[in-house]
Amino acid sequence: MTSLNSAVLLTIVLSLSACATSPRENDPSQDLGILWVKHSAEYKAVTAQTYRLALKDLQRLKRDAFWNALTGPTSRPSPLPPAVILDIDETVVSNVDFQLTFERPFANHKLDEWSSNYQSLAIPGVVSFVDIARSMGVTIFFVTNRPCERIEGNEHPCPQEKTTIDDLAEIGISADSDHVMLSGEQPDWGREKQVRREYIAKTHRIVMLIGDDLSDFVPCVRKKPAGACTIPATEESRIKALEKTREFWGNGWYILPNPMHGSWTSVR
After folding, report:
1. How many CB atoms lie within 10 A of CB 100?
2. E strand residue ranges, 5-147
3. Of the four listed, 45, 154, 226, 230, which is most buried by Cβ atoms within 10 Å?
4. CA nearest 229: which of 193, 266, 262?
5. How many whole angstroms separate alpha carbon 240 and alpha carbon 214?
6. Cα–Cα distances in angstroms (integers) from residue 29 to residues 38, 41, 74, 96, 103, in the given order
7. How many separate helices (H) and strands (E) can be counted in the chain?
8. Which numeric CATH code is attached to 27-267?
9. By C-alpha distance, which of 261, 267, 191 is closest to 37?
10. Which distant-in-sequence residues (6+ apart) come within 8 Å of 97 by Cβ?
């Protein structure tokens, strides 16, 4: 075989190999991030580890009346009762099966319809965390960017709220409309979660934030500005936000892995 033929054969073999192992466009069954969340023991270990570490710190942060997860240490103790804010999707409830099966492109109603027809799956570690936190006298709030959208034939202004509360109930976490806050539920509650965090802070001392996305902790991290944000986020600005808040990570702020979707994709 000539060197030219060998080179051609090698190119063909490499091309076939790439076709066999590379993710196919719009085929979620080939997405390694989704498959890792669905099947790996490592994913379950990381989430359980995160919640165990958060629970270990909760007693200390609850006891320290000078601590606030939104501002850091304060000069005066707060008289407000302690609370923890959790995101929902990929933080409390896993949507990995939805990610594997829904027809692209994504639309909000697709997730709501799927959630209404399938049993919810809990993120490993979250149920025991919520149960123990509540037994300690800590109030749990759920702040999600599932949107309130009208549905034809349904008079409720936010039918997605019931779906969300039902999802939580299915994994063994009780919640009500006062503690589950969706995007658009009130006029100024857009996709920028900072407004809702500050709303909760009026009545509670936020001792801990738990989420899977940078937006669950800091504002203005998306390419498309929302709320009070006026400048599009970039990869660089997101890294700077991370650096500015380094004292909080693992100390009041706890993030879970989500390689499937999130605000990070908006700046790529």
Report:
1. 15
2. 82-86, 93-94, 121-122, 139-147
3. 226
4. 193
5. 12
6. 10, 18, 48, 11, 12
7. 9, 7
8. 3.40.50.1000
9. 261
10. 38, 118, 121
Mean pLDDT, residues 124-149: 97
CA dist list (Å): 48 to 25, 39, 116, 143: 32, 15, 26, 21
Considering the entire predicted model, what is its pTM?
Answer: 0.88
- Per-residue pLDDT tens digits for 46-78: 999 999 999 999 999 999 999 999 999 999 999
Question: Which tokens belong to 120?
Answer: 């919810």
What's the token pair of residue 155? Answer: 């008079």
Angle in degrees, 0-180, between the axes of helices 126-135 and 41-63, rounded to the nearest 10: 10
Q: How many whole angstroms separate alpha carbon 171 and alpha carbon 184?
A: 25
Closest CA to 99 of 72, 127, 121, 74: 121
Task: Give the per-residue pLDDT at 14.
Answer: 39
Q: What span, in angstroms and rounded, lies between the C-alpha atoms of 233 and 237?
A: 6
Q: How many other C-beta atoms lie within 10 A of the C-beta of residue 23?
A: 14
Residue that is written with structure tokens 């034809």 in the block: 152
Which is nearest to 256 in space by CA: 228, 214, 218, 222? 214
What CA–CA distances, in Å, run from 251 to 7, 54, 73?
55, 8, 11
- How far is 45 from 58, CA to CA, in rounded Å? 20
Beta bridge partners of 154: 151
> How many residues does this entry show for the chain?
268
- Taking the C-alpha atoms of residue 107 and residue 266, their distance in angstroms, rounded to an integer, is 16
Note the pLDDT of residue 187.
Answer: 92
